[in-house]
Amino acid sequence: MGATEGRLSSEDRREQILAAATAVFGERGYAGGTTDAIAREAGISQAYVVRMFGSKEQLFLEVARRAVGRLEAEFRAVISQFSGEETMLERQSALGRAYGELVADRGILLSLLHLFGLGHDPVFGPEARDSFLGVYRLVREEAGFSPEDATDFFARGMLNTILLAMRMPDRKEDPMAFELLSTSMGPQCEAILALYEDAPARA
Amino acid sequence: MGATEGRLSSEDRREQILAAATAVFGERGYAGGTTDAIAREAGISQAYVVRMFGSKEQLFLEVARRAVGRLEAEFRAVISQFSGEETMLERQSALGRAYGELVADRGILLSLLHLFGLGHDPVFGPEARDSFLGVYRLVREEAGFSPEDATDFFARGMLNTILLAMRMPDRKEDPMAFELLSTSMGPQCEAILALYEDAPARA
DNA sequence: CGGTGAAGTAATCAATTGATTACCTCTTGG
DNA sequence: CCAAGAGGTAATCAATTGATTACTTCACCG
């Protein structure tokens, strides 16, 4: 995301800022992510970040809504392929792979995790609950998961996301950590660890 | 935690500040939790909070270490009761109850969750990974869980913690939310929801 | 051309916040 | 009593940060 690009259309710039904000909020959370860090990541001025979205709060809301949108879109794409002939296990791993795809755009899942930590907030709290329930409803009703299967699926997803948030892959040489990572992430473990190698490490 | 108490010994005051900090950091996270909010919660001056612990960073470190300590202590207490005759399911629900106990002191689990979100941080990142691996090791080696059982156990714990962090119990009248809560928390659901009623809501 | 509107920024502001300092106020032992 | 040390705070600082404003630059159209 260097500063090498010249002028962009409002629409393109908007996308670029959203991408930068997703990365920054994903790493630092809402309170910890500054509009200045986002601006630097996008190669523009801090003033423009704020002006384009009105406020940091609005920007985070858009980041969160995009993230949920991507998650739901990815799930729906998989669900639409269901024939009704699959075993439950097949459905579960298909959705699991969809989830795995999202790891590539790491900020998406991490931003959502940070959103979920803001339940106390009068703005983000309701947003978090609505978002989570929306995805749960999707998996229950459209993917046809039982309450137990859906809960297991989300539980595993949350553990995987937290392992990424804490950068557990940094410890993959530790046998205990590797066991945990590969047990939790299952067959996608290798792919995810590989993806993770090019971690920005823009701490 | 009113301001009704007079002078306390350094030791008592320290405990009180740690309790206040656990609650505040649990709700707002590290970046979002101010030393001033902690001071108000403890009924003392902001200056004293900082002076007692040297820095906000040190304070959060102590909060996090205490939280992990409590979690491990609770687990060890349960594990020490194991006879070697239980089924795996019995062991799992015994540890699950131990986890449930900690919900009473809600800040503990939520502070840990926020710690886990700080994997990028040069100080808190390593702390988070060490802490998590320490508890995992405990469950694997001392409680005798297989990698799969341990992973399932942690996955469920993470989902439960996130549901608390996002205040999903506020939505318990929504059938979908209630289904999710009761499926994830299992038999302890009622007790946890009851505990949650007296949520401080000190947003 | 020239001017008009969109893209973008430098400069600056006001509020917040972690930290520091100098001071106050009890208690307690000699 | 009184000195000394521990508990504790008011006042203040410097840095950070989200937001605002006035300005600049550039593309394009008539």
TrEMBL record, chains A, B:
Binding region for DNA: 34-53
Domain HTH tetR-type: 11-71
Superkingdom of this protein's organism: Bacteria
Keywords per UniProt: DNA-binding
InterPro entries reported for this sequence: Homeodomain-like_sf, HTH-type_TetR-like_transc_reg, HTH_TetR
GO molecular function, one term: DNA-binding transcription factor activity
PANTHER family: HTH-TYPE TRANSCRIPTIONAL DUAL REGULATOR CECR, HTH-TYPE TRANSCRIPTIONAL REGULATOR RUTR
The protein's name in its UniProt record: Helix-turn-helix domain-containing protein
